[in-house]
Amino acid sequence: MNTQSIPQTGSAGGAQRASLFKADGIVAGYGQSQVLQGTSIRLDAGETVGLLGRNGSGRSTFLKAVMKLIPSKGAISLGGVSLERAKTHEMSRAGIGYVPEDRAIFPDLTVRENLSVGLPQSGRVKTPPAAQSKRWTEEEFFELFPNLKRRADVTGGALSGGEQQMLTICRALMGQPALLLVDEPTEGLSLSMVDQVAQLLREVARRGVAVLLVEQKLTIALGLCDRINVMGHGRLVFDGTVKDFADNPGVRAEWLEV
């Protein structure tokens, strides 16, 4: 792979905008296995970036490394604030929300209690202004998703898979993040629930929150994202707009198709 051919996007007119989030040279893995080989990714406020790649390419590992859920090396900053030495709870306080692939709801807590877990904690680093235009509230989520309202006092373990997914995303948004990391949100969902997830993520971006989306379904990623990143062998092998990606069929053939 000739990495010099990787498209790099910037703002209109060619000037590079100051990024909301930067991760540079991230190295991480599990035990003796090093998965990330120096991955660098950036996002602007309100931008949705799709992180694509084959299974094992390092996409989920990158999200976990950003959240300090696994040991890692490299530079991470949000809104110009360095987070290299931050712990997991400090990443959340700094303004990064995380929606894991396994949803990680609390099965014995009710829907309301699960949402309350996501409320911002004290000692938070100041959130970048672009993400503060309108705060997310429990009442708004219940209006958007009537099923959650009807089951507000039901334990999370009794919800359907789709309801658990919506609850997980809403819980992350209760923390009023500037950046939302989302890992495979549509996996195993019905078409109607996929549409609801997509609508919510569009609203998230509209409010100025950056979204880094790991998504296996290519049509969904292309419909939601402003820019596409592709990972292969623990490195970023493509960075371009959706049009750049569509105009480079070789990228799909080499790094996505089995």
Short note summarizing the structure:
The protein has helices spanning 59-66, 88-94, 111-117, 138-144, 146-150, 161-173, 191-206, 218-224, 242-246, 249-255; strands at residues 21-30, 33-43, 48-52, 72-78, 81-82, 96-99, 179-183, 210-214, 227-232, 235-241. With 258 residues, it is α/β, with parallel strands linked by helices.
How would you describe what is shown here?
32% of the residues lie in helices and 24% in strands. By secondary structure, the chain is of the alpha/beta class. Helix 3 (111-117) runs parallel beside helix 6 (161-173). The radius of gyration is 18 Å and the shape is globular. The two termini are 17 Å apart.
Sheet of most strands: 6 strands, mixed
Q: What's the order of the H and E elements?
A: EEEHEEHEHHHHEHEHEEHH
Shape: globular
Tell me the strand percentage band: 15-25%
Mean pLDDT: 88
Flag low-confidence runs. Answer: 1-15
SS element count, helices:
10
Query: Can you list the strand order of the major beta sheet?
Result: 6-7-8-3-9-10
User: How many beta-strand elements?
Assistant: 10
| N-to-C span | 17 Å
Rg (C-alpha, Å): 18 Å
Helicity level, as a percent range? 25-40%
Secondary structural class: alpha/beta
